[in-house]
Amino acid sequence: MRSARRRGSYGVKRAPYLFLVPATALFLLFFALPIGYALWLSLRKVRVSGLGLGSGARTEVWAGLENYTGALSDSELLGGALRVLGYGCIVVPVMLGLALLFALMLDSERVRLAPFTRLAIFLPYAVPGVVAALLWGFLYLPDVSPFYFVLDELGLPQPDLLDGGPLYLALSNIAVWGGTGFNMIVIYTALRAIPAEVYEAAKLDGATPLQIALRIKIPMVAPSLVLTFFFSIIATLQVFNEPTTLKPLTNSVSTTWSPLMKVYQDAFGNGDIHAAAAQATLIALVTLVLSFGFLRAADRGNKRDAGQGDAR
């Protein structure tokens, strides 16, 4: 009986680790292994002997940090980073501002047809990014867009949204149209979790709906705002689908418009997979540093606010 009890106890202790085996295997196979392989490629390069013809003319050798120094001094990669920075300065505040506004409106007591409105706002998020970019791209083209036809009939100017400065607005519009619904759902869910007693107490104190929204709702959904901002920053740094899809429609979008497009062009266009791996690693490090720094700053702000609340 004692041996059976020991075997049963051992089996119970071992069960959690057995359940973790599939997830661990998938993590190692599809996440850790590709990252390790990319790091290995980033430290290598191809040495070409002579004309690069024949067997042994192209050999892979150790490069150290040479690919990283080349990436940091690459004007095309830095230019793409600046373009993405300008793109993010438009997308992130507009998208999160609209998501917060829609969530507050849907959480109002006077709203009508709330389920249909939530679905209508969230529906663009269900459209794949490439499909959304194609839809908006044809709406931006003067020859096929109904908007340009209406402007022409009214005698109004017809701006070219796929050239120059308006290109940033055109790309940002696609991201805002597709991402606002998801962020709205996250914030709205946090609003619905606030106890009704809090609102009742505020109303008894004479607070108006606007004061309740500004002084109660928004501060209490701050963690959700931090989460949506975090996701938006990552998505902005990884923008690829929208400019790549619009590239055949305009000459203003180059093959290196964003950092990820530069990585793709070097890897599959120029055949320099080692330089592309170094660039991808740098992009991942920048994303990690920005995300970690923002989360630390938000956590410090929350602790400071909590300390001030306790002091009061």
Polypeptide structure, described:
With 312 residues, the protein is mainly alpha-helical. It folds into two domains: 1-42, no CATH class; 67-306, MetI-like (MetI-like fold). Helix content is 75%, strand content 3%. It is built from 13 helices and two strands, in the order H-E-E-H-H-H-H-H-H-H-H-H-H-H-H. The chain has helices at 2-42, 66-72, 75-106, 114-126, 129-140, 146-154, 166-192, 196-204, 209-220, 222-237, 241-246, 259-269, 273-311; strands at residues 44-48, 58-62. It has a two-stranded antiparallel ribbon with strand order 1-2.
Radius of gyration: 26 Å
State the fourth-level CATH superfamily of the largest domain.
MetI-like
DSSP, total strands: 2
Classify the secondary structure makeup into a structural class: mainly alpha
Number of helices: 13
Mean pLDDT value: 86
Biggest sheet, spatial arrangement of strands? 1-2
Oligomeric state, counting identical vs distinct chains: single chain
Domain module tally: 2
Main sheet characteristics: 2 strands, antiparallel
Can you give the helix content as a percent range? over 70%
CATH C-level label of the largest domain: Mainly Alpha
CATH topology of the largest domain: MetI-like fold
Q: Stretches where pLDDT falls below 50 for ≥5 residues?
A: none
Tertiary shape: globular
What's the architecture of the largest domain, going by CATH? Orthogonal Bundle
Task: Tell me the distance between the termini.
Answer: 61 Å
Give, in order, the helices and strands. Answer: HEEHHHHHHHHHHHH
Could you tell me the strand content as a percent range? under 5%
